Every structure is written in C-alpha cells, then in structure tokens.
Amino acid sequence: MLDRDTTPELPPGTALAWGATPPPRRGPKPAHTVAQIVAAAVELADADGLANASLPNIAHEVGVTTNALYRYVSSKEELTVLLADAGWGPPPAGLASSGDWRSDVRRWTRAVVERLLSRTWLLDLPMRGDPVTPHRLAWTELLLRACALAGVGEEHLPGCVTMVSGFAHATAVRLATPATPAETAAVRDHLAPHLDRAGSVRLAALVAGGRYPATAEDHDAFFAAGLEPVLAGVAGVAGRE
Amino acid sequence: MLDRDTTPELPPGTALAWGATPPPRRGPKPAHTVAQIVAAAVELADADGLANASLPNIAHEVGVTTNALYRYVSSKEELTVLLADAGWGPPPAGLASSGDWRSDVRRWTRAVVERLLSRTWLLDLPMRGDPVTPHRLAWTELLLRACALAGVGEEHLPGCVTMVSGFAHATAVRLATPATPAETAAVRDHLAPHLDRAGSVRLAALVAGGRYPATAEDHDAFFAAGLEPVLAGVAGVAGRE
DNA sequence: CCAGATCAGTGTAAGACTCTCACAGTTTAC
DNA sequence: GTAAACTGTGAGAGTCTTACACTGATCTGG
Questions:
Q1: Which of A5, A6, A9 to mutate to test the interface with B (most CBs of B within 10 A)?
Q2: A33 touches chain B (CB under 8 A)
Q3: Phi/psi class of residue B100: alpha, beta or left (left: φ > 0; alpha: ψ in -120 to 50)?
Q4: In the predicted structure, residue A6 carries a pLDDT above the cut 60
Q5: pTM value?
Q6: How far is CA B217 from CA A1, B220, B222, in A?
C-alpha cells in the first residue's frame, strides 16, 4: 500500500507521470525506478499486446518479484496511466508548425494515426476524461497551436481539438485490424442480404461499392478523403470570428 | 469447443449477432438462448461496469455453471461482440430524419453521446475495424442518411461518418468521468506550473480560462460548441460536389 | 415400428493465469 | 538503536479456458 501520494485529489498516476519524487526517506534505497518499470511494460506491450504487460511479466523483466512493483506503483490502474503516456511518447519533432495551418493539422492527424497503428495497444487502454499527462498534453498543445493559427477562437478550440483528435482515433480504430481480402469478401457477402432486408440503403450502397469496410490498400485514400471534412470544419469556425 | 461456426471467415460473433441459428441437431435442446445470456451480461454491466459482466457472474445470473456458457458462445471475445451490439441497442425512434440535415446530425450526435454516457462500459469495450453488427450498423445508416441529405458525395461519406462518430466518441470520453470541483481545481493547480515550464502556452491559456478540462456543468455548452466545427465540416464537403 | 448408436447440453474438476494483501527479513537513515 | 522502507515468500479471490463423465434427445438400421 503505497502512501507517498502527496496530492490525493489528482487522478491516479498523474503526479508520478510528471516526475513527482517524494523526499528521501528512511529505508533502503529503491533498486529500480518507475521509469524502468514503465519502460519494461512498454516493451512487453510492443512485443505482444497489452495483455502481455502484466505485473508478473513486468516484474520478471525488471528482475524483481511481482509484489515489489507495489513499492513503486500503488495499483495496476496507476501503472496503466503511466503506460499510456509512455506509449504515446513525445510528438515527433517534425510536427513543429510550418506556418500553414492545414499542413499542420494534416501532419498532426497523420502522426497520431501512425502512432496508434504502430502501437495498437494504445487503443486498448481505457481512457476517460481529459489527458493530464505530459506527453499527451504535448500532442494536444501542438494541435491547439495549429487550430489557433487557423484563426479559431478560444471558445471553439476545445471543440476543434475534440473533432480532430476524435477523427484521428476513429480512423485508427477502423484501420487497426487490416481485414484480409477473404474476410472482407465474407463480410460483404454476409452483410448484403441483411442490409437489404433492413432497408439500409446507404450502407448497402457503400458495401456494394466496396467502400465499406475499407481494405488495407486504401489506407491513404481513406485517410485523405476523411481529412477533407475535418479541415473544412476547422476552417468553418475559424472564418467567422 | 463450439463447432457450429458456419462461416469461419467472419469476425467472431458476427454470425451470432445476426441471429444465425444452426439447424436442429441431435442432443437435448438448449435450456437457454444466446439472447438470454447477452441480456444477463448487459444487466450486470449496467449494474456495476464491464468487469462485472464476467463469465461466472453471467452464468450465475442465467442459472447455469460457468462452463455451460461455452455451449452458446465459443469464447469471451465472441460474447463481447454480442455485448457491444446489445449495449448500443437500436437507435432511438426519434432519430428519423427531420428533413433538416443539421438537425439530423445534431440529434444523432447527441443521442450517441447520451447512450455512451448512460452506458459508459461501452467505452471500455475493445473496438477494432468497422462495425458489422446489426444495431451498430443501424446507427451508422442513420448518420449516412443525414450526411447524404446534406449533399455529401459518395467519396466523402465514409470520411464524414468517421469524423462525426469520432467526435461523438471523443466527447463522451471527455465527459465520461465527471470531475468533482475539488479534483478539477487540484488538476489545474498541479498542471499550471508544468505547462508554463514546458512552454505550452495554448494549454496554459485554456487551463487558466477554466475551459480545460470541462467541468460537469457545461456538458451542453461543450457539446454545442464542439458540434459547430463538425457541422461546418459536413457542409464544407457537401457544397462543392 | 422399435432399438441403439451418436452427439449436444450440463456439471464437476482442474489448469494457468490475473491483481492484490499480509507477513517476515533485511537494509538504510535518523 | 530505533524506525521506516524495500524485497521475497506465501496466500487469497478472481479471471478465462479445457478435459472428462453423465444425462438426454435425435437419427439410423433392422
């Protein structure tokens, strides 16, 4: 039972994520650090998915007993928060503003999708509330700047952030499980009669047109086409301030 | 090991979700149905979150042994797919088109957010790929119609759907854990110095202005403000066909 | 038409996991 | 030297899943 929580009002893990280090205390010095533990967890998740980042596995990787981890982290939930922030990591250096807000938003969204697709276990992490950890906030800050550069006013900034990041997340979710051609065909054949019967004319048209679900090939096309309404949305609230 | 899978190419649970019933077979008739099991799971999740919908709990609720469930469902994953579709349920009847596409999109988005906030365990379900279950597709069909009514062309329909539903999902995620005033204040006080030090001027301004994170009071304002760029985005790709 | 082989539904039991807590031993700082 | 903290051992209450025996209903062969 970890008792070093200096600010119990904060969501779990928040203080630790910002590098809060309690003042030196009495007993023997810790043989490891929270950063080491989180790094091990990231490695395990990268290797074999989120379920692989279990406390026993992490402990084995670090070289301690499962229980020793509870000296560094008060619960699995807290470690999950740290894992999420570490999994996102800092935004790529190339995301600095180019002066063209459309390019900024486009590159930001692409970077998010790429990160989520290269670390699909980030999609499995339970997320609630607003991001309050350093890396995730760094990503948000960049998006905020891009929107502000476009001329979006204060009252529409949160909305634009929610729209753009929501689109990025939804795109990653859709592309995260690349369907094999056989699967796609099976789904199509299975769905078509049901859709007709249910009167889902729009869906039926998309399925018949092969646009739904998107196959792995047209990742880029899907992304680019989806980005257009997003950019139009930002521009829409930016113009009429 | 359930062997009744008629179309193994389909994602797990898909066939069952559409009510696939294998032809009558030899042994004793099942004492229960998949629908009963899923209903019990929904009830448990509604009562105490997704973790409460465990196989032992579901089995207890239904009145059988844990293992008997494996005669109806081949794995927990498959049951999770069914649980997701049942949790969404059919879209409310009031979502039929009003003739005004803006109203349609607005009401659709609001309905999604409301459903997600009244069943926050839907946010905990692992989601990948495109929805292929009946209720979720019914929701999508309605959104597609609203976008088509706005004049969005075929090539932009998937993008608009992704944008709008992504926004709805992201909004629900942000509002799902209502922060107490004390928590909000604690986060604010804790974050402010870090943001200044990191040069996150935009975030610092939002935090200082009290707009970030949103408190429980301004759910509606947050939602309404966020919806504006979304509607502008749909309008943006609808006009220039 | 009836007997019996065949398979499905169920219960009991057990395996390999998970996260968490309690206790004793050891090490460090006050 | 005392008090506190790190670590290991042990254990408990869960999770999902598989294997095996038993009962019961259907289909097949005579």
A1: A9
A2: no
A3: beta
A4: no
A5: 0.94
A6: 34, 8, 9
In three state form, how does the secondary structure of A60-81 look? HHHCCCHHHHHHCCCCHHHHHH
CA dihedral B116, A175, A160, B166 (to 10 degrees): -20
- As a whole number of angstroms, the distance between CA B37 and CA B57 comes to 11
Taking CA–CA distances from A124, the nearest residue in chain B reads B126
Contact B158 A127 (CB under 8 A): no
**If you write DSSP's letter for every residue of B47-71 in order, what string do you get?**
HH-GGG--HHHHHHHHTS-GGGGGG
pLDDT digits (tens, 9 = 90+) for B204-218: 998 887 666 556 567
Q: Does B154 touch chain A (CB under 8 A)?
A: yes
Instruction: For each of the domains in chain B, give its residue range(s) and CATH number, in order of start.
Output: 4-88 (1.10.10.60), 93-178+215-239 (1.10.357.10)
Query: Measured in Å, how far apart are chain B's first and last C-alpha atoms?
Result: 52
CA gap A131, A203 in Å, rounded:
34
B62-109 residue pLDDT tens:
999 999 999 999 999 999 999 999 999 999 999 999 999 999 999 999
Please indicate whether, in this complex, the C-beta atoms of B237 and A228 are within 8 angstroms of each other.
Answer: yes
Contact criterion met (CB below 8 Å) for B122 and B131: no
Listed residue (B193, B216, B217) closest to B204, CA to CA: B193
Burial A172-208 (b: 16+ CB within 10 A, else e): bbbbbbebeeebbebbeebbeebbeeeebebbbbbbe
Q: Is A153 on the interface with B (CB under 8 A)?
A: no
Please, are residues A17 and A83 in contact by the beta-carbon 8 Å criterion? no
